[in-house]
Structure formats: structure tokens, C-alpha cells
Write a structure and sequence with these properties.
4 helices
């Protein structure tokens, strides 16, 4: 009930600073301003994940930040998880994922442990299996993911990056939409 009141008062998950503080404090997830979608489904992203501003995430995204050890006689957690009462501390090497600003991740994407970075403005197609870092403004899809294109040419990407538009509040961003759209306008 309290969560609903907070969200209504702060105009929902997309804009709520309170819900972001709660996720940071209790789940060690940093979720950027204006971002919405699956990042608010507990368990989607592992602790330590940093998500930029103005990101859009579909449902059923899976993020893995470690693999079972495969060079031992078994991959069972007995050998790496203290909950099984054999090891005193976890022995898996975990990665932290940093997702840039303005990223769109489609339905059913799987992010594997080697992925440490998804660049600003990237688009990850539905059903993609990410096995490595994603370049800014790239469009990737497939299993394993492959770059199928870039949203803009390098000059346009550099201009967008220079603006740091993702640091603007919603109201300030609305005032800048026309100017930002001119940067990416198709040249005829």
C-alpha cells in the first residue's frame, strides 16, 4: 500500500526517486532517472548492476553474473556456495554490469557473465543472447549477439554524447527535444 502511494505521488516507477533509493539500499541496484521496465522486477538484474538514465527494458530479461565452475569434478554449488556448508565464502568470480543511458533491451534477452558493459544508446533485440560487451549506439541481435547495425554515424554519435542529454530532468529534456532531434535528423 505504501509503495502504491509513493509511486502515485512521484508519478510512477519511471520518475520515483524513493523507489530508486529503496532498490539501491536493499538490493544494491542503481537505477537511473526515467528508466522503466524489467529492472524493477526483483531478480532480473544481479546486485551491483548500474543502469543509466532513460532506459527501456521489456520483460523476461535474464542476467547472469557468474558461471558454475566447470574445471572441477562437479558444477554443484557445494564447491562454491557457503550455503552448502563446505566452503566458508563464495568462490565464484562475479562480474558487475554497467548499462549506459538511453538503452533499449528487448523481450527475453539473456545477458551472460562476460558482459560488463552495454554502451549508451544501444538496442538489444528480443531474444538476443549477449556474450560480450555492447558498443554505444549499436544494434545487436541473435544467438550469440552480433552487431547488425549502428543507430547513427560516428559524427552524430559524438554530437549526442557531447550533449549529455541523459543528465537532464524530464522537464528540461522536453524543452530540448527539438534541438536533440535535429542532431539525429536524416541528411537528405
Amino acid at each position: 500500500m505504501i509503495r502504491i502511494i509513493i509511486l502515485k505521488k512521484e508519478n510512477g516507477y519511471m520518475w520515483s526517486s524513493t523507489i530508486r533509493r529503496i532498490y539501491k539500499k536493499h538490493y544494491n541496484l542503481s537505477i537511473g532517472y526515467g528508466s522503466y521496465g524489467a529492472m524493477f522486477n526483483l531478480g532480473t538484474f544481479k546486485q551491483g548492476t548500474i543502469i543509466g538514465n532513460y532506459c527501456s527494458f521489456a520483460d523476461n530479461i535474464s542476467h547472469f553474473n557468474a558461471n558454475h565452475p566447470y574445471k572441477q569434478f562437479t558444477t554443484h554449488p557445494l564447491l562454491y556456495d557457503p550455503i552448502c556448508q563446505f566452503v566458508k565464502k563464495e568462490t565464484l568470480s562475479r562480474t558487475n554490469l554497467v548499462i549506459g543511458h538511453g538503452v533499449w533491451i528487448g523481450q527475453g534477452v539473456i545477458i551472460l557473465p562476460k558482459v560488463k558493459s552495454i554502451g549508451n544508446g544501444a538496442i538489444i533485440g528480443a531474444g538476443t543472447v549477449l556474450t560480450k560487451d555492447v558498443l554505444p549506439y549499436s544494434i545487436v541481435a541473435g544467438n550469440p549477439a552480433k552487431i547488425i547495425g549502428f543507430r547513427f554515424d560516428i559524427e552524430t554519435i559524438n554530437k549526442l554524447e557531447t550533449t549529455s542529454w541523459w543528465n537532464l530532468s524530464k522537464d528540461d529534456l522536453i524543452k530540448q527535444i527539438d534541438r536533440l532531434n535535429l542532431i539525429v535528423a536524416t541528411k537528405n
